[in-house]
Amino acid sequence: MAADKPQTACPVSREPFDKAKSPHIDYQGHRIYFCCDKCPASFKKDPAKYLAKLPVEQPSAPSAPEGGKS
Q1: Is the pLDDT confidence value at 53 over 90?
Q2: What does the DSSP assignment read for 10-56?
Q3: 22: number of Cβ within 10 Å
Q4: CB 32 within 8 A of CB 7
Q5: Which is more confident, 48 or 67?
Q6: For the chain, what is the mean pLDDT?
């Protein structure tokens, strides 16, 4: 999880959340938000399962110079 995209849904329920009001935990240097108080317990039981559902920015391919080879 090097460069994260903003989290937009709870990784457990896939429901939206409100960062100002929603529960969260800090896990491996990342803040994970949840839609309700029940979801953090589920996350803690199997973090790898739910981390896979979080958006992660994919590295972009280097752009080739215009006009082909240089």
Answers
A1: no
A2: -TTT-----TTTS-EEEETTEEEE-SSSSHHHHHHH-HHHHHTTS-B
A3: 16
A4: yes
A5: 48
A6: 81
Is the CATH code 2.60.40 the one for domain 1-52? no
Which pair of structure tokens corresponds to residue 11?
A: 């990784």
In which region does residue 28 sit, left (phi positive, over 0), alpha (psi from -120 to 50) or beta (all else)? left
Non-local CB neighbours of 14 within 8 Å, separated by 6+ positions: 53
Q: How far apart, in Å, are the Cα atoms of 64 and each of 9, 59, 70?
A: 35, 15, 9
User: How far, in Å, CA of 65 to CA of 27, rounded?
Assistant: 40
Predicted model pTM: 0.70
